[in-house]
Amino acid sequence: MTKQVAIGIDVGGTKIAGAIVDTKGQILSSLRIETPQGTANDVVAALKQTINNLFEVVPETSEVIGIGLAVAGTVNWKEGTVVQSPNLPFSNFKLREIIDSELGLTTFMDNDANLAALAEKYYGVAQSAQDFVGLTLGTGIGSGIFCNGCLYRGATGAAAELGHMVIEATGPQDSCGSYGCLEIMASGRTLVHLAKEKVETNRKSLVLELAQGDPKNITGPLITKAAHQGDKLALDVFNEIGFWLGIGINNIVNIFNPELVVIGGGMAEAGELILAPARKAVSKRALHPNKDIARIVQSDLGNKAGVIGAAALVFDELFV
Amino acid sequence: MTKQVAIGIDVGGTKIAGAIVDTKGQILSSLRIETPQGTANDVVAALKQTINNLFEVVPETSEVIGIGLAVAGTVNWKEGTVVQSPNLPFSNFKLREIIDSELGLTTFMDNDANLAALAEKYYGVAQSAQDFVGLTLGTGIGSGIFCNGCLYRGATGAAAELGHMVIEATGPQDSCGSYGCLEIMASGRTLVHLAKEKVETNRKSLVLELAQGDPKNITGPLITKAAHQGDKLALDVFNEIGFWLGIGINNIVNIFNPELVVIGGGMAEAGELILAPARKAVSKRALHPNKDIARIVQSDLGNKAGVIGAAALVFDELFV
Q: Looking at the DSSP assignment, which residues form a beta bridge with residue A20?
């Protein structure tokens, strides 16, 4: 009996990841290339190449029933359009149609953070939840919202921009042009920025030592390493970022009364370093009964959430 | 042929309003009393009296099919419980069951701001919208959220506390204990507070003149009156409150990608005095395409939104 599988593609600004995923969320095969830093056509060519390469390794016992695309940007999922993207050369670009028609296989597409939440619902920590919010903490902050058991996309698919929820209106300017958005207060980019700022006045930190004396070498994982070794500067940075993350989660808890808030993305790997101060802020600020109901948990899908979510979209559209 | 009607009751901290409402949202009869400032039993007695008084004026050609209660507080609509209320003596109080059993008529209950949004969907400005948010601007700020055509209540009915979304985390303390919530930044209470503060240093304002020289007499409608006459202090106050309201709406627009944001409640009667600066902040800050999609409109239900929404809940539960 043939096994039904989907091809899930995670289209990011720096890398394109692809995988063959079965209906249980297991990855049968995967690959990863750098995203071409060129035109939309260059990215489309790389996408097609990725998909074709995956087709070549589909097991004989499997049948690919569709392609799912998780795109880093604003997606109109109804129209199959990438409306805009901060790190990809797409603007009102009918990506779904191109992939669909050129490869002759039903294609579905959505925003990557929406699909990371879908992955949590299908195969991750949110399988039993009807109402939850997934936050993807990386260089920026993405999110996906489940309301009454369904992914909530809004009028034109642009909902769930929780990274651009203002939590400190008089705060620093964000890349979106606004001020004090969750993203500028609590993202991985800001974590690194803050550590670089602090080493300027505190040259004795382990952070600077691990960076071989050059602040330019400071990265998120490096700060995490220093914090795990008890470095005060690194712990301060996580406490500060965690506080702001907690303000964002406070809002999520008060607005959505969710069962779960799932924290994923690269920065989530810092675990309790960032989650403990976030939980503290939520506990101090959020309303009853909302804060008693909502559990704040770490994703266990890691950087596979995008490809698994893209495949889950195919199953969700074709089976549900 | 008998006409089916519902009794809608709006249970607020200062008044209880009741109405007989038909399925077209028309009010056939209404009354309003002051809320007893006593125990839960006192409020229940007043509620029963209100309902009985309404029953006496039900037209012979009408049949009451249910009672709807719109309660100012956190409601668990599944269990029919008022979880807590800032201005009513209810705490984990099974109000629905009491009204239901003692009056022998099917009773439904929800938070008043949720039901104001339901009223907009059934009979107000949001009839054709699937995704919208209603904000009720009064002494505090309540809200109701429609996702995919349904009222969104969250895991335990406590969702949509947009008044307690933090927009300026380092801002002043709110009555909920948190800091910089939308409510403390942009509610009617803060409007009056701000005007009182400003007249201390500017004694020439028309606001103070209309208040007969005593800041204690300053009210929302008085500030509105002064602003309509071009008083700078009053206009400044509206600009400031409107800015913060706009930050809140910016978040709503980015989070929900709604078709509409409906502004109701007493303070909405100030109209463009508060909506113009709010729109300006949204236009400057919110994301594309969200801000191009979302229309910010004033409710036309006025203070009847509660009773009409309570009746709409009955129709929604029994007919849909």
A: A7, A29
